[in-house]
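Tutorial handout. Part one gives the primary structure; part two gives the three-dimensional structure as tokens.
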Amino acid sequence: MFPKTSGRADSDLLSERKKDKVMKFIALIAVLASPIAAHADAIDDFVAAEIERQEIPGVALGIFRNGEVLRLQGDGLANIEHGVTVQPNTIFQAGSIGKMFTAAAVMALAEDGLIDLEVPVRNYLPDAPESWDAITPRHLLNHTGGLGSPEQDYRQDYSDDDLVALYAETPALFAPGQRYSYSNTGYALLGIIVNRVAGRHYGEVLQDRVFGPAGMRTARVISDTDIVPNRAAGYEPGEDGLKNQSWVSPSLNATADGSLYLSLLDYARWDAVVARRDIFSAASWRQMLRPAPLNNGTVYPYGFGWTLSEGPDGQQVIGHGGAWQGFQSDLRRYDGDGITFVVLANSAGADVGSILQGVAERFDPRYAKPAVQLVDTHPGLSASFDEALRRIAQGLASPADFQDMDPEWAVRSLERSREAIEAAGDCGEFELTSHQPNGDRTTRLWRADCAKDRLTGRASFDEDGRVVAASVWGQR
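Part two.
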């Protein structure tokens, strides 16, 4: 086990206030923490067990009620080489949680009248191809633009013009608005649009329009060269143990698809903004948290950088996950209750989603996911998934079998899926847990308890019931 720490105050606060004010601040934290005191041991034990089971160097956990701190906890090491422990002010890379902030930068400029969400993106990117005429900023915000994912050399620097040209050369996956398909390309383009419209980097827009007003004093864009106090190191699995994060070029580590540093203290201040629907107008917040409209008249549960789902008592649950450069992150807010959980880890192999879920249900049993199997009204889809699963497990599946999967990505994904199935041992039946229509596609999730792990399977189907994408992963 790595060392454990919890509850330290922000060093900036300590330096700015006199001793009596510091003591009042510490007392306030203690009062705010009291509602979950009865759950503390259960949460502590669970997080410690997960760190050991998953072999994670360090984890930061925050629980907030409308921006008020209920729990700030650091466990393990922020930096293995120097033996530095995780603290509440430790800076973690946020990964794709940063997309909600990219969307915020876009909305700030939209409120200024500088970006129109309904016009073609070529209005802001005149060098973009004519094939993008039907793509709007709204499509990019909702991941419904249909853009493909290009091959990139992550050790090469690219200018904004280089990236637009690279994205333009990549074949489109579908017509704009036809379906939802998660797109880092789309959010990187949104950042380029902000850069051009504002005449400065989107990170500077965020500092002025979001981080500053919110009091997020350590939130910023990633930089390898700047001195960043309390920065955690990211780790990736290697053949003989953990390795330091892979190097990424400065330009690709500053794109708007997820290139931010944030601490638990920053997340607490952001949670207060979200709770009050502050900084932006009520109309802007409604747009950010509205499901994505699709061409067939249906919607998909994703807003502007926010995943959307339904929680206890029918309340909306909003959040996002992230993964980048040896870090994993997850944020989930039960919006009706005003309760937010944030879990940050400095290991590429960490399953922070399962940690967050375990913490949430120990905090409030209402947040436990019901173990009810869905009634399968489309058994033919499950049969098609079973066949795809068999081929993946036997190493017979190829990228050509799955038309919606990028060929290069599919090679890695299918191999990881095969390895997960092999490592899990004997499994019971895969039970259907989710059925989500998505325009001209349907996405389903299954779960199976196995001898050594619990597996989750995901597949997308076209209108004829053919599997067009599939993957399997475990919790261990």
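Part three, for discussion. Residues 297 and 439 are 9 Å apart (CA to CA). The domain at 4-99+202-367 is CATH 3.40.710.10 (Beta-lactamase).
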